[in-house]
């Protein structure tokens, strides 16, 4: 697959490392666990949105945009990475933050990613939970156009076919790394939210005929809702790539058992996963995505769903800046 046909900027630190999780593998008693370190993509504490932004900003600059508009939850990692790259590229950054969790904790409201958004000088508008975020972004765009600006809207999580190209690229990178070291990957596991990561991976893994299955652990939706969402975007991404109809519905697999009470709300499994990875591997997960993703992986391994001689890769999607917004969760 030849993704150089698409406009792209190069600011992510790639390739990200693929490392064994020796202590965790030993503690859980197999399968052999590995971690793909997309928490180390280099942009303002890193994370998965950086790969998507390489293609999204490539398209925005091709269209001569002078302002980027995007949206996310209060502690959005996507928003933080978007604000950072806008600073570097000297673009105006308009952010809409939806107060989805309803938390009144000052750490949640102002620390972590929000502190960083402000450092990058983004214009932030906070709106209540349930706001139609796409409509709100359109309103902001209309206002900017009226004043002679040229806005480019990035959907929540950067999850459009353009953004998903970042994870087509990641799939090719991962397959290359595995081939270089003769590592047979039997399972790839990642947290899934706005769906661009899993959709891009599916398109890239299918496009390379890798035969590697992907499991998405949901952070806000039930299994069926998430699979439908991922499938729709994976199909659009495959079409965009020039391989229409290549994604099979059965290859889209999500697990909704680890969401707990809702998006951004803590679970015991998440807390355990964050603590385990910190204490066993010196790796920081996050409370909203990678913590729940890893909680799912750990639980499924404990339930004996995988063989000891299998190799499993966890895609670490980043987000550790969010830990500072959840101080009470980890110090109680
Ligand atoms: C956005 C995000 C995800 C989910 O990725 P999607 O492409 O939105 O499904 C996972 N982990 C972290 C840390 C994120 O910020």
UniProtKB/TrEMBL annotation:
N6-(pyridoxal phosphate)lysine modified-residue sites: 49
Keywords, comma-separated and alphabetical: Lyase, Pyridoxal phosphate
Cofactor list: pyridoxal 5'-phosphate
Pfam families for this protein: PALP (PF00291)
InterPro entries in the record: ACCD_DCysDesulf (IPR027278), D-Cys_desShydrase (IPR005966), TrpB-like_PALP (IPR001926), TrpB-like_PALP_sf (IPR036052)
Catalytic residues, chain numbering: 76
GO terms for MF: D-cysteine desulfhydrase activity; L-cysteate sulfo-lyase activity
Record keyword Lyase present: yes
Limits of the Tryptophan synthase beta chain-like PALP domain: 12-318
Enzyme Commission code(s) on record: 4.4.1.25
Superkingdom to which the source organism belongs: Bacteria
Keyword Disulfide bond included in the entry's annotation: no
Alphabetized NCBIfam families for the sequence: ACC_deam_rel (TIGR01275), PRK03910.1-4 (NF003031)
Family note: Belongs to the ACC deaminase/D-cysteine desulfhydrase family.
Stated name of the protein: L-cysteate sulfo-lyase
